[in-house]
Amino acid sequence: MALTFDDLFTSPDHYLQSFEADHATFVPMDRAAYHRSIFLDRRISPAHEERLAIPVDALVPRIPPAQPTSWIFHMAHCGSTLLARALDDPRAGLVLREPLALRQSAIRRDGALLRLSLAMASKRYRPDAPTLVKANVPVNFLLPDIAAADTTARAILLYLPLRPYLLAILRNEDHRVWLRNVTTQLAPYLGDWSAYGDAQRAAALWVAQATAFAETLAALPKARTLNAEVFFADPVPVLTAAAVHLGLPNDRAALERAVAGPLFSTYSKNPGVAFDNAARLAREAAVAAAIAPDLAIAEDWAARHPARAALDAALANAALSR
For every residue of the chain, which 3-state class applies, written as one string? Predict the structure, then answer.
């Protein structure tokens, strides 16, 4: 049977993986492929290797309204992959971790690509369960547009307080390269930070994202914040509350099994590496000693920002109830 545009817009088996020049690239997926794909960027693990490229101009006039979607927005390196994987029960709602097309929409600042990405990301396997999308950092700067598209959307805004965020972002050269690259890519939103060192960039990126989250709380009544350290310390009640808030039909027993299993004793981005909350805390202590001068620069920069105290309060006051 020939594939139709209706098929592309209704079945999650046809996944919009990326935009390549003026074409949209689709890859074949199924529930198992989504579940095993820790990320849906270039690291995707499709159902099979066929790809389909369709001109974007052929899709845009046909974009249907997006279905209600649930969201995890996050600051990076704060447990979002762990949270999204723990909520990924193949019997429940579909979970998309970092759709590349959505990220590309943010980098390109293209409204048509965003509408197409939102419609494609909202497709479901279960009509009674919204798809959960874990976005990534560039998408935080599309939050006004995403909120305007659906003011009833349920969302968790996952964050780390400033100091643990700095320890996560500045802890090694790979993360610092990511910091420089993403803030350069986001210059149309953030401005030119080429004169900033790594410490200032990290502090400024925390402030920029905390500001985006605070503004989103006013635009999305069903958005709640989640301090990642609370999640790491006591995951079962947090996961239970998150599933309820996001409208996911996960049951507590399944969440307890997830916490007791290998997901919480290995690194969520690389299951071959042992890692847990105790290891995270030990790493933080070691990093704090190693980067003390940069920590001082970053914390001083943030302390002088006029909105710092208000941002801390906004994030704390909208916390997800457990």
Answer: CCCCHHHHHHCCCEEEEEEECCEEEEEECCHHHHHHCCCCCCCCCCCCCCCEEEEHHHHHHHCCCCCCCEEEEECCCCCHHHHHHHCCCCCCCCEEECCHHHHHHHHHCCHHHHHHHHHHHCCCCCCCCCCEEECCHHHHHHHHHHHHHCCCCEEEEEECCHHHHHHHHCCCHHHHHHHHHHHHHCHHHHCCCCCCCHHHHHHHHHHHHHHHHHHHHHHCCCEEEEEHHHHHHCHHHHHHHHHHHHCCCCCHHHHHHHHHCHHHCEECCEEEEECCHHHHHHHHHHHHHHCHHHHHHHHHHHHCCCCHHHHHHHHHHCECCC
Chain segment 196-209, per-residue pLDDT in tens: 999 999 999 999 99
Average pLDDT of adjacent 10-residue blocks, the chain of 322 residues? 90 97 97 97 94 97 97 97 96 96 97 98 96 98 97 98 98 98 98 98 98 98 98 97 95 94 94 94 97 98 96 97 86
β-strand partners of 212: none
- How does pLDDT run across 44-78, given as a tens digit for each residue? 999 999 999 999 999 999 999 999 999 999 999 99
The dihedral formed by the CA atoms of 181, 186, 191 and 193, expressed in degrees to the nearest 10: -10
pTM metric for this prediction: 0.97
Cα–Cα distance measured from residue 265 to residue 274, given in angstroms and rounded to the nearest whole number: 6
β partners of residue 70: 132, 154
Q: What is the dihedral of CA 263, 268, 272, 273, to 10 degrees?
A: -100
The number of CA neighbours under 13 Å toward the Cβ of 42 is: 2
Phi, psi dihedrals of residue 280, rounded to the nearest 5° = -60, -45
Residue 128: φ, ψ to 5°: -95, 5
CA 26 to CA 22: how far, in whole Å? 13
